[in-house]
Amino acid sequence: MTLDLEALYIDLHRHPELSFQETRTAGVITQHLTELGVEFEEGIGKTGIASVIRNGEGPVVWLRADMDALPVPEQTGLEYASTARGTDPSGNDVPVMHACGHDMHVTALLGALERLVATKDEWSGTIVAVFQPAEEYGAGSQAMIADGVLNRFPRPDIVLGQHVTPLPSGTIGVRSGTQMAASDGLTVTLLGRGGHGSRPQATIDPVVMAAATVMRLQTIVSREVDPRDVAVVTVGSIHAGLKNNIIPAEAKLELSLRYPDDEARARVLEKVERIVRAEAQASGAEEPPVLVTDHTLPPTINDVHATARLVLAFDAAFGEGTVIDPGMFTGSEDVSWFAREAGVPLVFWFWGGADPVAFAEAFAAGTVERDIPTNHSPFFAPVLQPTLSRGVEALVVAAREFLDTPAD
């Protein structure tokens, strides 16, 4: 068989699914794995899939792609734009879009598997392809690990993965050391005393408490973190009250915290807790605030030696100048749990999906952040080519670099 990668990508883009709901996506994947004659198991960590290609003695290389989409209303204007709806964990009906490119990840991995199956006489070893759910929740890799994926399949000697980004299409971005930041999702519940909006003196207003807390949290990065260091404190959600003349009894803040390492994480978390508790006390709260960590992701750290080796392989395959050091990205990923749990090296790279001409024009004008839609934007739409072909090629080159070559 020969996969029609563009048709596959368009189909996946039209039919996005939220985290742990990727049933149709999983069905598309297993259909193609069956046609390839590849051994696989489905339903790992709820909707995850792992497949294995055994091809004699040699290293075990894991290739990972995530599958889930986001609650974002697509505004790309593409002919194949998503109009899908889904139900989020709170029971809300929401629009769904592949705004982070996971449809591209799945397509590239299936394309790479097809090539690797077709060239089995050129390599030896074992490939495990992992199609992971719920990366956007930061929970999918751990769900698959908890479901025994590391024990049910050959354990890796190295874990490899990639992510499409708004770099120019054809470009690869990779660096040794910390490629992506660690992160925590934190929910803060501020407890006040509710009452009638006409009698604020009889209440402890959690809305005002929340407003003061949000503003004070901004001083962590601006006044308490060394300007040479990296940290992000974002309050992405505030919920309080149901009616304009009712002062509610509580307010909830949802925070996204980012840092390069465990030491910075400890410092930022301490500062967040100190500010939240102090603002509650300053507001006269009768009960302390409640802080709950929703998820924790470690930094994505690329193995120094494996990364250097892979950069040379990419240079040889694609030409010097194709590979760049993109710097540390303050977004976070859960791919590293596979490597951490197995105790093996990880290499995770970015590959470009932005129109090269549009990117060059925006770069020259200094308007890249404004004019080139990034991941999670409702306008995020990687150009089909050479993005798809480069994503397939990068996975094949990377896998072949760490597999064995049969003796003549």
Automatic annotation (TrEMBL):
Highest taxon of source: Bacteria
Annotated coiled-coil segments of the chain: none
Entry cofactors: Mn(2+)
Peptidase M20 dimerisation domain ranges (all copies): 185-280
GO terms of biological process kind: diaminopimelate biosynthetic process
NCBIfam families reported for this sequence: amidohydrolases
Official protein name in the record: Amidohydrolase
